[in-house]
């Protein structure tokens, strides 16, 4: 997880397979945060959840928001964008654990309970992604398979396996 209020910085995470990249951005405070989560629920390993809370959706996302609040962000202004959540198998029928799908469902439930909506996302499919967030503008770019996509307002892409 990284958070910043420096408009000249760019936050980047690589290798978003089944993992999710979650960006939050407050355009008034010009504060951004980026979290790379691996698993949906910290209940599977209490020790890891204590040592590495950002590894899980349920413990990492609240921490991401708190860290942004500490830099001046406000929940009502936060813009959330998400990428990743792919299947980890070449043949999606063999992805028994469906971690990518479960990560996205866990995130949506958590945000919904806290009255936060996802503005744009690019999730699913079978390819890995890189996610970039420009703090000065709030632009979120997803790179995958040699292409770059700007995650715009209300863009929703769920790539079926």
- The strand count comes to 10
Shape field: globular
SSE pattern, N- to C-terminal: EEEEHHEHEEEEE
- Point out poorly predicted stretches: none
What is the CATH class name?
Alpha Beta
Give your account of this protein's structure:
There is one protein chain. This protein has one domain (2-159): 60s Ribosomal Protein L30, Chain: A (2-Layer Sandwich), CATH 3.30.1330. It has 3 helices and 10 strands, in the order ββββααβαβββββ. It starts with a strand and ends with a strand. The mean pLDDT is 92. Helix 3 links the parallel strand 5 (79-84) and strand 6. The strands form 2 sheets. The chain has a 6-stranded mixed β-sheet, covered by helices on one side. A 4-stranded antiparallel β-sheet has the order 2-7-8-9, with no helix packed on it. The chain has 161 residues and is an alpha+beta fold. Helices cover 22% and strands 35% of the residues.
List the keywords.
161 residues, alpha+beta, six-stranded mixed beta sheet, four-stranded antiparallel beta sheet, 3 helices, 10 strands, 22% helix
SSE arrangement:
Blueprint: E1 2-4, E2 10-16, E3 20-26, E4 31-37, H1 46-51, H2 57-70, E5 79-84, H3 99-113, E6 118-124, E7 129-134, E8 140-144, E9 147-150, E10 156-159
Summarize this structure briefly:
The protein is an alpha+beta fold and 161 residues long. The chain has 3 helices and 10 strands, in the order ββββααβαβββββ.
């Amino acid at each position: 997880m990284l958070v910043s209020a420096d408009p000249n910085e760019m936050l980047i995470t690589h290798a978003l397979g089944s993992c999710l990249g979650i960006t939050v951005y407050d355009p008034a405070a010009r504060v951004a945060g980026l979290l790379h989560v691996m698993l949906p629920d910290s209940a599977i390993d209490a020790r890891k959840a204590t040592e590495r809370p950002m590894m899980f959706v349920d413990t990492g996302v609240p921490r991401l928001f708190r860290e942004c609040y500490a830099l001046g962000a406000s929940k009502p202004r936060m813009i959330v964008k998400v990428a990743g959540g792919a299947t980890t198998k070449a043949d999606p029928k063999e992805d028994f654990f469906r971690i990518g799908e479960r990560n996205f469902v866990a995130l949506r439930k958590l945000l919904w309970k806290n009255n936060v909506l996802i503005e744009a996302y690019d999730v699913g499919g079978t390819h890995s992604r890189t996610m970039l967030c420009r703090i000065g503008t709030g632009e979120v770019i997803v790179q995958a398979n040699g292409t770059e996509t700007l995650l715009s307002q209300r863009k929703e892409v769920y790539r079926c396996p």
